[in-house]
Every structure is written in structure tokens, then in C-alpha cells.
Amino acid sequence: MENSMAIKKQSFEIEKTKIGLMRILVEKQDPSSKEADDSTLRRFLRSRDLDVEKASNMFLKYLNWKRTFVPNGSISPTEIRHELEQNKMFLQGSDKKGRPMAVVLASRHFQHEGGVEEFKRFVVYLFDKIFTRMPPGQEKFIVIGDLKGWGYANSDIRAYLAALSLVQDYYPERLEKLFIVHAPYIFMTAWKMVCPLIDQKTRNKIIFVDKKSVKSTLLEEIEESQLPEILGGKLPLVPIQNS
């Protein structure tokens, strides 16, 4: 026990030192990074195995992207009209550790005239909504992707890759787990195309749940009172724009 505590304390001190070094590097190259708190820098550091140079480059890239992609600081519902009209993303409840939970009904996703750029704005809109629900001391969230009824008409490889790229490149150490439930056999064809393009850390967070044990598997992480009704729980789905 004492040895474990000592190791944790040592790890904390190492991270603290590296956060200080990273802050010096990024503030020198981009003064706006002064607004970033230690928790944000820590997430980027951890995603790069505490390599200060790699984490700094990643964070600076994020700042440049955010200025360009979200110039107003947030995404307006008017910028993602087609996505919201599909009524496929919901946000309510939390897991046993207090992590906010999002539910996506994949069979409601179709390509539209807004294209991948609108879909990416939609993902950022989702993240911002989730972060406003984060309890103190919590930084991660859970996603349940329900693929019941998914067919080739819903397949959108570019959108899947865009979402995963955002998670990996600009929101590191935010996703705790992505549970994929009711995945039809034909989905695996699309998955085989996407999987090799996902980094190992992100891939480890994606869990395909056996169709015979969906509720029991989810109940290991989520109380029944917090689980959506469509998955055997007690919470009604709340569209993300209403959450």
C-alpha cells in the first residue's frame, strides 16, 4: 500500500515537472496557450506518453485547428442543421464513476448536402455539450453506439474516420469507452476498412458488446437508473440539442 502511494506520488511529481516544461514551450510559440489549465496540458502529455516535445506539438496543432474550425468559440445549431434533423444523438445519464454518457442511433445517420465538414462540426458540438456536464474532477465520457437497424445506406466511412480523428488529434484522453451494441454482420465490412486507421490507444477503448449480453455488460459500468430505456434501463432518450 505504502509502495503504491509512493509510486503515485512520484508519477504526479514527474507529470507536474513535465507540465511546467510543456507550458514554457507552448507559451513561447503561442501566447494564447496561457489560457490552458494544467489538466488540459496533462491530457495532451499523457496521450504522448509524457513526451514533452510531441505533446507540445500536438497541443499547438490543436490551438491552430480550434481557431480555424471554431472561430466563434462554439458551434451554433444553425451550422449543423442537417445533423440535428436526423435526431440521432442523445445525451443523458452517467456511468458509475460520474462520467457523462452519449447515445448514438447509427441507423438514423445518412449522408447529406452538408457533407463531412458539417458532421465534424456536429461532433465538436457534441463534445462541447458533454464537457458542460462534466462533474468536478472528471474529464472523460462514455459513448454507446447502437447499430440496430444499421444498413449500407447508413455507411459513411469518411464520417467515421473524421470523428475518430477529432478524438485522437484534438480531444485526447477524453473518451473513456465506446460501446458498440447490436452491430450487424454487414457493419464489420465497414469496420475492417476503418480499424487499421485508428491508433492503438483509441482502438483499445472501443468495445463490441455481444448481442446476447448487452444489458448485463452495460450494467457493469452503468446503473440501471442511468441506462437508456431502449437498452433495458430507465432513462428516456434526450436529444442532444435539448440536453
From TrEMBL:
Ranges where the CRAL-TRIO domain occurs: 77-239
InterPro entries assigned to the protein according to its UniProt record, in alphabetical order: CRAL-TRIO_dom, CRAL-TRIO_dom_sf, CRAL/TRIO_N_dom, CRAL/TRIO_N_dom_sf
SUPFAM superfamilies associated with the record: CRAL/TRIO domain, CRAL/TRIO N-terminal domain
Pfam families assigned: CRAL_TRIO
UniProt-recorded name of the protein: CRAL-TRIO domain-containing protein
Organism: Hibiscus sabdariffa
Lineage: Eukaryota, Viridiplantae, Streptophyta, Embryophyta, Tracheophyta
